[in-house]
Amino acid sequence: MAKTSPPDSSRRSERSRRAIFDAALALVGEVGYDKLTIEGIASRAGVGKQTIYRWWPSKAAVLLDAFTEGVEDYSAGLPDTGDLAADLKFVLHATTDEFNDPAFQAPYRALAAAGANDEELSRTFVARLMEPGIRVYVERLRAAQEAGEVADDIDVRIAVEMLLSPFSQRWLMRTGELTYDFVDTLVDQFLRGVQPRG
Amino acid sequence: MAKTSPPDSSRRSERSRRAIFDAALALVGEVGYDKLTIEGIASRAGVGKQTIYRWWPSKAAVLLDAFTEGVEDYSAGLPDTGDLAADLKFVLHATTDEFNDPAFQAPYRALAAAGANDEELSRTFVARLMEPGIRVYVERLRAAQEAGEVADDIDVRIAVEMLLSPFSQRWLMRTGELTYDFVDTLVDQFLRGVQPRG
């Protein structure tokens, strides 16, 4: 979403970029999305407003880049040790730790809340942040399907939603605690539903 | 949450109460939760501010009562025809229609978004609006467990979250369409996971 990426050769640009991301994430957690401004981010980051506008067209664009850089790198996909249960529990335990971290919570919540009311922001948020996360699970399950660990007639996309949505919902709506025990039961019941019937 | 319920004998009070609920739901959809005020509700409803304050301590209290009155009555529980798949699809088709209705969407979204940032509001929202809905599914599944349609070792609460959270998340985050086809696949995969193994 950046209009022009800062030149990699410039360490000063990279420092500014990092400062802008840190400022944006901290501020949105403090004041909420509606009250977040480019001016506020610039002032907190110690850069000029024009520095931000040179790289990003809007506060949403800054935030989405800040998040994309902050969250796990999905490009490698999920681990595939051949043990689907162990792989899913391993990754979801790490995600549990991340979602229970207060430094992660505030900005992510602010963006999710703003997205509930703002359809365009929501679609960008989902496309940039949620879909890549969903996709690596879909790919891991397709591999398991090919290995015969998941039944052929399972709708893998909906199966992934049945695994991940209870987790997201507990966190976003605070309908329950995110614990390793919860994750383990979730994964076990999920596998019970997708495994081939013996 | 009402401090004093309007006397049932008074038709005028009942009319005011209804007007206040309608005004609160319409306004929160238009301006969002943060900008909703008791003054605004009173003016839209054509009543005095004091009428509202006599019955409710806050705008959150008005809204929650308005929603509680508006949503389905859960006291009767889910249908139990003895066919769990049919019962779940019947109810979730009705819920699909409801959640796709624009008149329902705006106020519910505004409240959900406000709750993502406001922990106390969120807890009340969940306790008053979401938990009663979750509970009737838990009860229906326990009945199915007793009838031998659901395996004894299933964690029923987590199973219900695996059924309902994908639905809620698609709606709230707009990660996918809510259609009867989606609901039917969701219910089928859900049942596959909870049924006793042959």
UniProtKB/TrEMBL annotation, chains A, B:
Keywords: DNA-binding, Transcription, Transcription regulation. The keyword Lyase does not apply. PROSITE patterns: HTH_TETR_2. GO terms for molecular function: DNA-binding transcription factor activity; transcription cis-regulatory region binding. Residues 14-74 form the HTH tetR-type domain. It holds the Pfam family TetR_C_11. This is TetR family transcriptional regulator.
